[in-house]
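Weekly modeling sync, notes
Attendees: S.R. (lead), two postdocs, one rotation student

Agenda item 3: backlog of single-chain predictions. S.R. asked that every request posted to the team notebook include the full sequence so nobody has to chase files. The rotation student volunteered to paste the first one in as an example of the format we agreed on. Action items at the bottom.

Example entry:
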Amino acid sequence: MISKPGLLKLAKKHPGATKELTEWYKTAHKADWTRLEDVRKCFAPADQIGDVLVFDICHNDYRLITTVDYPTKRIFVKALLNHKEYDRKEWMKWAKH
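Predicted structure, as returned to the notebook:
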């Protein structure tokens, strides 16, 4: 379960990512992920950093920061960041181990 309105709200900050985020949503919404290896079948460059699952968006122009509860199949979208924002590492507050 993913909040599409919440995802599109994040896209307003980075409108160039809207199309790819919509495609990401369609794929992730249908997915049956139980571990990172399942995610990488759909999104090969996805990275798990602690509790955070990071997706490259728009050929790595943006990073979609999420957390995933694999047992309940819930994906929580936390942020959509450009490289400068991502490099500040403020997103790591969601990566608790």
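Discussion: group reviewed the output briefly. The chain has a mean pLDDT of 92.
Action items: rotation student to repeat for the remaining queue; S.R. to check formatting next week.
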